[in-house]
User: Fold this.
Amino acid sequence: MVRRFRSYFGRRQQMHAVRHHEEPHHRKRRLSVPERIGATGLFQKAIMQSGCAFNIWALNENHRIVAFKLANNLGCLSNDPEEIVKYLKNVPAIDLVKGTKFKNGTDYLDYKFVPSIESATVSYPFLPAHPEQLVNDRSPIPVIIGVNNMEGMVALSSASHADEINYLFHSKLSGVIPKPNSPELEMCKMMGKMWSNFAKSGDPNSSDLSFKWVNASASDPKYLSIDGDRTCMADGMINSNRLRLWQEISESVV
Assistant:
């Protein structure tokens, strides 16, 4: 009985995701690529789903404080960085992971060890400066940026955060195994085709698709609404009302 309920709910959830899933903005913009590690020219294109380098959880500017707090939680009370590094090297990996589960009143998400800006003393830094600075110093490359219509929510009967991953990498682990000739399988094929086309050539379009994904720009915003057999281009900025609200709030507090 439990298996039947879970199976039904899974199918229902997938169908809602098919009807409401949205992926906006195939457009060219700048992407930060560090030069000193020889990465210039290595990244020819990029796909960002449900986030980017400007999200508050994607960059830690207080990594030193976090490392000291982790060591303290695991029993190392030293203030010497070299002693802390030596101590942490001998801590089992599972304990390191468990030790990162700490928060304070200003934390938004419990992501502690994410990319951080490396100092000038590092020989080959991956992130030598803040993304806001790097984004203006590099050559533009083609980028796909995607969001879901219920982005920010998790595990809803709609297209919530990270649901697109199930269609791109469906497996028993994700709980999405499309049945033959089902709408879910067609959705998987369509998204896989566009993403692989883009990875190969920088253009998600191909002759076997029933629509054309048009490039967008800041002066001419548009996005592709992925909606099963009703997938089509839409004019304007996605979630424009939400963007307008946050812009007004931002301007009022500056």
Observations:
- Residues 151 and 241 are 15 Å apart (CA to CA).
- The first helix runs from residue 2 to 20.
- Confidence is low (pLDDT under 50) at residues 1-38.
